Amino acid sequence: MPYQPLPEAIHTLLFDVLHADVQLAELPVFADTDGDLMRQVLGEAGKFVGEVVAPLHTVGDNPGCQFQAGQVTTPPGFKEAYTAFWQAGWPALSAAPEDDGQGLPWVLEGVLYEWLSAANHGWTMAPGLLHGAYECVRHHGSAELKARYAAKLASGEWLATMCLTEAHAGSDLGMVRTRGLPQADGSYRVSGSKIFISGGEHDLTDNIVHLVIGRLPDAPAGSKGLSLFLVPKVMPDGASNTVVCERIEEKMGLHGSPTCVMRFDDATGWLIGEPGRGLNAMFVMMNAARLHVALQGIGLLDAALQKADAYAQERRQMRAPGPRQSTEAADLIAQHPAIRRILDTQRAWVDCGRVLAYTTGIGAGHRQTPPQRRAPRPSQPLVQPRDARAESRVHPPSLHRCQRMLASVRRPRLREGMGH
Fold it and tell me: Lower CB density within 10 Å: C or N end of the chain?
């Protein structure tokens, strides 16, 4: 059963509960964006997700991505779906018009990516870092880098990665060994290895823009000595850069996304931001990823809820309390109070998570406003990490409760239905 977005449920929360159209209309940058336009965008987004992306969920798990001689082939249909995705303008929803973006409120992009995660998490991992990479280049890149890469990332024509983790250091970025040696032409020779790089190599786009944390030769030890480099897979002159995918990892339930081990062999790159302040630039991308993680959790729980609810509407067992509602010997398990409690509780978690995430997304509209016209919002930086932490802690036990609904299903069917 492929996931199906339900725009009407989102309309209720966005417009009747949060009054998103009213809040955003107060910002001059969204003066031409009303509720009708937002509903129309969400309606078309729901159609694309349900008709194009969701049906590819099964092939994302099996056969999944294939690796051979440094090249990654994505599952059948993934490349065509992604091409349709970026050519229809979906990655550019909230990008700035000067970068060929549509300049719409970020909350619409947030809803889109929630649905994409629910429909096909493996496929969605590819464009999931796009907005953060675009914002990082836009705010911290040189004029030359912005002219060369910002519009490509805004449109999704080129995809991006976030290269942080190294095998010897794990999440301790202060131990990063990757180096960037300055060259006479202003570029850098970047050398080092990174692990757990989502979308490090694939066939979805002609180019991949790697944002790589590393050190300059005279950098001090620790995280304060880190710089950020932009290292493309394909150079501006069309030549291949010395960026190598050594292998892809086995990730249970996420075979449709290539999690790569990447090696940079004196690869050509350019500095983003100031020397030694790489984390300041990278945090633009990391904060965007945090909110996306929260939306992933909401989307996955909604997908599990849809499957559990559908099963509860067809599975019969024993008599439910109260008057008989059919002539069948047994009642639907959806009519049993214990099952209704499970389903209603999960619906409440989905809606509560959405309210928190969408509130943050509406607030992101203030960051889309030019700085000189922006009203202060001192609480905003605190919301994003709390979003991700809350959703990631709440949703695993909720997903487990939805899986329990299918406990009596034969294992082959469970595998097909839940995508594990």
Answer: C
